[in-house]
Amino acid sequence: MRAGTLGSKRERRGPRLVLRRAPCVVVLAIALSVGLSACVFGGNAVSEEKSTHVNLINQRKVALAFLDLHPGIDRIRFTQDGGPSGFGAPWAANAVITMGGEDYQAILGIGILSSDPLPSVAAGTAPGPTTVVYSDGSSEVIE
Questions:
Q1: What are the pLDDT digits (tens) for 77-124?
Q2: DSSP secondary-structure letter at 90?
Q3: Measured CA distances, 128 to 4, 22, 42, 104, 120 (Å)
Q4: Which pLDDT belongs to residue 34?
Q5: Residue 3: pLDDT band by 50, 70, 90 thresholds?
Q6: 32/70 Cα distance (integer angstroms)
Q7: Confidence class of residue 43 from pLDDT cuts 50, 70 and 90?
Q8: Do residues 103 and 46 lie in contact, with contact meaning Cβ atoms separated by under 8 Å?
Q9: What's the pTM value of the predicted model, to 2 decimals?
Q10: Are 139 and 131 in contact (CB under 8 A)?
């Protein structure tokens, strides 16, 4: 009979123990969900700000490289922020190059500078000021 009695006590203790732990498990699961969600949502603003800053730095860098190869450009306007390209370059952005009043499409990136064919510039022509319009709308004149 004792064996039956012990079995009954275990059966009575088992559900009580589970019921006592259930609220703790639920609270822990909710806390983890909220914590992980906060990291995801809170991290976006910081990484977007950092990404925008990196994109603007890269836009300036590739604009200067493009101007070294192609003097006589009136304006470079970036039409997108930029990011990893499908051409094997670590970063690239689309841009519109204005030269002699005409617009030309270009992909300017780290390790890749590609555009529609540009008009020839006479040898020895001194480069004039070029306005660079960045994807965030800011601009600067490069002499």
A1: 999 999 987 767 789 999 999 999 999 999 999 888 889 998 888 777
A2: S
A3: 99, 74, 45, 18, 15
A4: 56
A5: low
A6: 55
A7: very low
A8: no
A9: 0.65
A10: yes
Report the alpha-carbon distance of residue 83 to residue 52 in Å, rounded. 10
C-alpha 15/C-alpha 80 separation (Å) is: 60
Q: Which amino acid is at 143?
A: E
- Number of residues assigned to the chain: 143
Amino acid, res. 60:
R
Q: Which residue in the block uniquely carries the two structure tokens 């006479």?
A: 122
Alpha helices for the chain (secondary structure H) = 2-69
**In 43-143, at which residue ranges do the beta strands (DSSP E only) sit?**
75-78, 92-99, 102-109, 112-115, 130-133, 139-142
Cβ-based neighbours of 125, under 8 Å, separated by 6 or more: 71, 72
- What mean pLDDT comes out for the span 61-70? 93
Please give the Cα distance from 92 to 108 (Å, whole number): 5
